[in-house]
Amino acid sequence: MRRVPSPAWKRQRIELSDGDFVDLDVLGSASQTGVVLLHGLQGSTSRTYIRAMADTLWESGVSVFALNFRGCSGEPNRLPRSYHSGATEDLRAVLDTITDRCEVVHAVGFSLGGNLLLKYLGEEGRASRISRAVAVSVPCDLKGSAHQLATPGNRLYMWNFMRSLRATMQQKADAFPDQIDISGLREMKTFQAFDDRFTAPLHGFRDANHYWASCSSMHFLEDIRIPTLLLNAKDDPFLSEGCYPHDICSASSFVHLETPEQGGHVGFLNGARSYAEKRAVEFLSSDSAA
Q: Which end of the chain is more exposed for a tag (fewer CB within 10 A), N or C?
C-alpha cells in the first residue's frame, strides 16, 4: 500500500546464450559500486519493494541494476522455459554485463530472487563476482515454504499466486501449443501441482520434489564466502521452520541470519523507508564481515 514513484529506469536487453533474453532496468551507468536487485515470484521491477529499494540505494550513491526475470518485463520470453528459484545461469549473464561497468558489485534479492541469489553465492564460493549481498524474506526451504503456503491460513496468498501462474502458463501454451499441454490447469491450486506439472519438466527436473531439493538455498549456505545478510521476519506467513537456518548461519563466518519479530513478507514497514531498505544500505556499505 506504499506509494513509491517509479524510478527513471533505462531499460537494457541482455541476449542469453540459449537464444532467449532478459530485460535489465538501470539507474546510473558506470560507477564504482553497482547493486543488482532480484524480484520475487511473478514479480518485476515495477513491484513496490523493488522501486523503494532502488530509490534508497540510488540516494546512497550507487548505481542500480534491477533484473526482470525471463517473461517478467512485460514481454513474453522466446522459449518454453521461463525462470525459477534456482536459475542462476541468468544471473551470471547479467553479472557479465554489470562487472564491465562497476568496480564493485553487490546484490539484494527478495523472496524467490533471494533464494536464487543465495544459491548463486554458494555455487561460486570465493569466485563470486558479488562482493556483499542481502537476501530478504527468503524461502530457503522451498518444499517447506510450498507446504506452508498451502495451509488454510494462507489461502488468499496461494489463490493470488496460482491465478497469476495459471495465466502465465496459458500464454505459454498459446505460444507453444505443441510443447505445453495445459489440460487440468484450471484445477491446479497448489505449488506442488504446478511445479510437478510445469516448473520441473520445463527446467530439467524430475518433479516438484527434485526441483525443490535441487534449488533450495539452505543447501548452499555453508559454501558462501562473501558477507551476506539473510533477513527473514518471524511473522512471515510464507516461511516454514526450515527457512530459519540458525544452525547453518551460526556456524558460518559469512552468513548472518537476522530474524526480526515483525516484517511480514518483504514488508518491514518502518516510516518512509522500510527496515529492510535501511538495513540493506547499512550492510552493503559496511566494511565488516557478516
A: N
